[in-house]
Amino acid sequence: MKKVLLQASLAFSIFIVALACSKDDAPAPIPAPSITNFTPSSGKVGTNVTINGKNFGNTKTNNTVKFGNIAAEITTVSTTKLVVTVPVGAITGKISVTANGDTAISTSTFTVEEDAPVLALNKTALELYTLDNEILVASGNGGATINWTSSNPEVAMVDANGKVTAMGAGNATITATVGSQSVNAVATIVPNVYIGGYESNGTNNVAAIWKNGTKQGLSTSSDNSQVNSLFVVGADTYAAGNDGNVAMVWKNGEELYQLTNGANGARANGIFVEGSDVYAVGEESVDGFFVAKVWKNGNLLKNVTNGVTNAYGKSIHVDGIDIYVAGHESNGELNEARVWKNFQVLHDLSDGSNPAEAYSMVWDGTDVYTVGTEIKVGKFVAQIWKNNVLAKELTDGSNNGYAQSVFVDGDNVFVAGNDGIAPKIWKNGEVLYQHPDGGNYTEANAIHTNIGNVYASGFAALGGKNVVKLWKNDEEMTITDGSQDAKSFDLIVQ
C-alpha cells in the first residue's frame, strides 16, 4: 500500500514540474512598431525620408513602408530607423510602417511637393520670309503672364501673344520670360526675292512676277505683256510694264493704272513709290516719235522730251519734290545717254560722237550713278557714270558689253550686265562674279544686295527657249522649267 502511494505521489510531482516547464518555454509577444517622427516633412518624388521609431523589422523584407497607398523603396534598415524614397504616385498624406503583422501610422502628414513647371516653347528655331508671321506657343507657365521680347526688333518683332513678325533679313532671339525662368527661340528671317518679267502661255507672252520662285500671274489682256520694273512697299508689290500697246502699272497682281489708251505704242520701264504717290517712267509714240514721259498716280505728269526725236525713259528715282530720270534721246543721228532732274537735263553722259544709252540710275542722296553702254571702236562698251563723269569702262570692247542695272549699298556700287554672251557682276568697277553662260547667250539685267549677299537676275537661252535665272553670289538658280519661253527684267530683294 505504501508502495502505491509513493508511486502516485511521484507521478503528480512530475506533472507539476512539466507543467511549470511548459509555461516558461512559451515565446513572449513581439511589440508593435511605432513611428516617433520623420524628416524631412515634405519633398518631391525621389526624396530620401528618414523615419524614426521603434520595433521596426530588422531586414528590408520585414518592413513595408507606404506613403498613402503607394509602397516606398527602403534603402536603410534598423529596428529604430528606416530610410525610404518618396515613390512615384505618392500624394500628400500619412506614412505607414508595417512590421511583424502590425502597422504604425504617423501622426503628422508628409507633404509631397510637385515639380515646379518648366517653361518651354513649341519651337527653338523658326524661319520666316520677310513680313510673314508665326505664333510661338509657350507651356509650363502655370497660367502666369509671359513677357515676350526680341533681341532685334528690326529683324523680328514679337507681340504679347507670342506672334513673331518678320521685319527684315537677319537673325533675332525671341525670349519668353516668366518669373526667373526664360526660354529662347532663334528666328531666322529670309528676304523675299521678287523677279519681274514674262512667261509665254504658248500663244502670248504674259506678264509675271515670281516671288521666292513661285509665279504670280498678273491681270492682262490677250496681247503680249511683260513686267519691266518692280517696287515693293511693305506687303504691296508694284510693277510697271506694258500690256500690248498700253503702258501699265499693276499692284499686287491687279491692274492699278492704264497709263496710255493703247492707240500708240507705249511702255513703262521704271517705277518708284514715294509715300502714297506712284510714279512711272517710259515712252509713248506720238506723231511718229517716241516721247519719254513721267506718270504720277495713273496720269501724265509731264513729258521729259519734246518729241522732235526719239527718246526713251528707262529709270526713275523720286526724292521729295525732285524727280530724276535716266534714259537716252536721239540727236537726230544717234542716241545720247542722259539724266534729267525735274524735266531738265542734269547730265549729258555722252558727247554725241558715239551712240550711247542709259538703262539704270540710282541717286544715293549725294551722287547719281548711271549705267549703260556706248559704242567705242565698233563695239558696245559697258559703262558707269558718277554724276556727269565717266567713272569706269567695265568691258574692254573685245565683245559687245552692256551695263543694265546699278545698285548702291553703302560705299559699294554694284552693276549687273554682260560681256559678250557672258553675264557679269561688278563691284566698284571690278569684276565680282562672271557667271557661266553654258555656250548660250545669258543676260544679267537686274541687281540687288541684302545683308552682304549679292543677287542678280536675268535669263538664258536653253533648248530654243529662254529660262529665267537668279544668281545669289556665285550660286545659280533656274526659276522656270524651260517648257515655255520666259525672260526677267527686274529684281527686288527685301
Automatic annotation (TrEMBL):
<feature type="domain" description="BIG2">
    <location>
        <begin position="106"/>
        <end position="188"/>
    </location>
</feature>
<dbReference type="InterPro" id="IPR013783">
    <property type="entry name" value="Ig-like_fold"/>
</dbReference>
<keyword id="KW-0732">Signal</keyword>
<dbReference type="InterPro" id="IPR003343">
    <property type="entry name" value="Big_2"/>
</dbReference>
<dbReference type="Pfam" id="PF02368">
    <property type="entry name" value="Big_2"/>
</dbReference>
<dbReference type="InterPro" id="IPR008964">
    <property type="entry name" value="Invasin/intimin_cell_adhesion"/>
</dbReference>
<dbReference type="InterPro" id="IPR002909">
    <property type="entry name" value="IPT_dom"/>
</dbReference>
<protein>
    <recommendedName>
        <fullName>BIG2 domain-containing protein</fullName>
    </recommendedName>
</protein>
<dbReference type="Pfam" id="PF01833">
    <property type="entry name" value="TIG"/>
</dbReference>
<feature type="signal peptide">
    <location>
        <begin position="1"/>
        <end position="20"/>
    </location>
</feature>
<dbReference type="InterPro" id="IPR014756">
    <property type="entry name" value="Ig_E-set"/>
</dbReference>
